[in-house]
Specification:
single chain; 243 residues; alpha+beta; two-stranded antiparallel sheet; globular
Length: 243
């Protein structure tokens, strides 16, 4: 009978190894005024070539974590072989790891960070289009009221998942304004006096364990938001990339 990875055996998500090397941009540039606490934005010029793939990349990052074993000791495959491997990975279940003996071996690279640095065009093309960030069955949840009790429960669930080496995928939203509509992979949490300290760039803090706030590091701009657990349901410290 195939052996399923237990929590102790499941590889922990490491940002420097398991994240994408290329940038997922936005069509807008956001400017934070550290003195006045205000946020302004302007259209990014030139228009980014790769943007609004946050839901695509969070899903793919966890698929690589759950289903791939990288072997840097072997020769790296050519583009056609890489394309086939990527398609096989993104066709796997993003919710649970596969049996150890069914892991996909990608030779020539130490992890997803190295792989995506060398094969960025292939990964961008094969992981999925930006439309997949908008057409998701889980998006229905944000249109209904979400209580502070729900957010407290979400925080507890996220913490539990992280303790068992499960990197939860979450949906961050401020509805109906959609000032933020973003997906993240959580992989670490550190409790501090004022909330959860985060690095390298974004902090999500929970106050009174009933709501969440998103804060840009080195700025005073803050917005209240809703966190919806996706595929697994405390707080996070780091993220895959800008959405």
């Amino acid at each position: 009978m195939p052996k399923i990875c237990t929590a102790a055996e499941q590889r922990r998500f490491e940002f420097g190894r398991d994240s994408f090397a290329f940038e997922n941009e936005t069509y807008w540039e956001y400017h934070f005024d550290s003195t006045g606490g205000k946020t302004s934005f302007s259209r990014r010029q030139p228009k980014p070539a790769y943007a609004h793939h946050c839901f695509v990349l969070t899903r793919a990052a966890r698929q690589f974590l759950y289903h791939v074993r990288f072997d840097p000791g072997q020769k790296a495959p050519d583009d056609d072989a890489c394309r086939r491997l990527i398609r096989e990975v993104v066709g796997r279940n993003p919710r649970r790891p596969c049996p150890v003996e069914k892991q996909i071996v990608i030779p020539g690279y130490a992890g997803l960070r190295d792989f995506s640095a060398a094969r960025a065009p292939l990964l961008k093309a094969e992981c999925g289009g930006a439309w997949r960030s908008y057409v998701l069955r889980s998006h229905w949840r944000m249109v209904f009221p979400i209580s502070r009790g729900h957010q407290a429960g979400t925080a507890s669930s996220l913490h539990t998942a992280l303790q068992t080496n499960i990197p939860p995928i979450i949906h961050l939203v401020k509805f109906p304004s959609l000032a933020i509509n973003h997906s993240m992979v959580l992989f670490a949490a550190a409790e501090t006096g004022g909330g959860i300290d985060s690095k390298p760039t974004i902090r999500i803090i929970q106050r009174n364990r009933s709501d969440f706030h998103l804060t840009r590091q080195h700025a005073r701009s803050r917005c209240r938001l809703t966190v919806i657990g996706r595929a697994a349901r405390w707080i996070l410290s780091r993220f895959i990339g800008p959405g």
